[in-house]
Amino acid sequence: MRDTEKLLLKGNDAIAEAAIRAGCNAYFGYPITPQNEIIAYMAKHMLEKGRIFIQAESEVAAINMVYGASAAGARAMTSSSSPGISLKQEGISYAAGADIPVVVVNVVRGGPGLGSIAPSQADYIQATRGGGHGDYRCIVLAPKSVQECADLTYLAFDLADQYRVPVIVLADGMIGQMMEGVVLPPERPLTDLPKRDWAVGNMAAAPRASRHISSIHLVPEELEAKTKARFVRYDEITAKEIRYEQIGPTGEADLTLVAYGTAARVAQGARKLAEKAGINLGVFRPITLWPFPAEPLAQIAASGKPFLTVEMSLGQLVVDVNLAVLGKAPVHLLGHCGGIIPTEEEVFNEVKQILGRKG
């Protein structure tokens, strides 16, 4: 059962504690702002529990350690922030190609390059389109609160094991650094974790044929067959694992705001300002950024009423909104980058501009 006690935690700490409670028994990371609290928390508490913690010599080393540990049967995780995640992309692609379940946390900061340490959502395209080379996808979960940092991290491990895919928890820097009340998920005994009958190792305990886990398939027909089989799994994920939140009567709204993470919190504040002015706003928040909840958005678009995508990037979420709407309704963008967060008043003023209700 979930704990009943509410704790005041930072988002990063909630992610780390939820990972431990989910049965993460191997963590490999490398420091980078604004996710350093995760690696610090894991350094203390993983070792207390007799689990594996290694601060690797680099991000590249960390993701390959995760690959190896997961292939050997561990529930393995790494965390970083934007430039560090870029360095991990080859290893994430290898994990996808070898059908290895891993959890990767990205507490996003401003970019490109080293950019800044301020919060951003500019890694959306990277996360939702695979990020590395080849045909693959990662499940992407986007929390908007410290409570969801805990809940979605806990869920990430189960989804990774169920579908044998990398799962990314995409939390912008504000979500990682803010403090809120959170009720933590239950501690899961390691003996209750799903069996990994496909993993390597442990042959002395149970003699069997050797297993080989790799992402290399040099025969073109073999690689195509493996990749197509993986996409059948992606279709199953799309059918079963889409998550989203609708706030207000989006189908009847004068305009629907689409946002995730911190930007979704701003959108909810703008909705309250609009209510006082007699404007009916809906808020649509994708929780799974991949698979993206396109069909629910398409149903809202049938009314022909406009959308406004609010994001801490210069037009990334809006790409998927446009693909979902398919020209049935106008789609507008309010985007910031470099660590600037839109304000509720700014969003509300943009809404009035779109609706022609100025002043």
Poorly predicted ranges (pLDDT <50, ≥5 residues)? Answer: none
Which structural class fits the helix and strand makeup? alpha/beta
The main sheet comes to: 7 strands, mixed
User: Percent range for helical residues?
Assistant: 40-55%
The average pLDDT value, as a whole number, equals 95
| Strand residues, percent | 15-25%
Overview of the molecule:
This protein has helices at residues 11-21, 36-48, 59-71, 82-97, 124-128, 146-163, 173-177, 220-240, 261-276, 294-301, 317-325, 344-355, and strands at 6-10, 26-29, 52-55, 76-80, 102-108, 139-141, 166-172, 179-183, 244-247, 255-258, 281-286, 288-290, 307-311, 331-335. The protein has a 7-stranded mixed beta sheet with strand order 3-2-4-5-7-6-12, sandwiched between helices. It is an alpha/beta fold and 359 residues long. The protein is globular and about 75 Å long. The mean pLDDT is 95. Helix 2 (36-48) links the parallel strand 2 (26-29) and strand 3 (52-55). It is built from 12 helices and 14 strands.
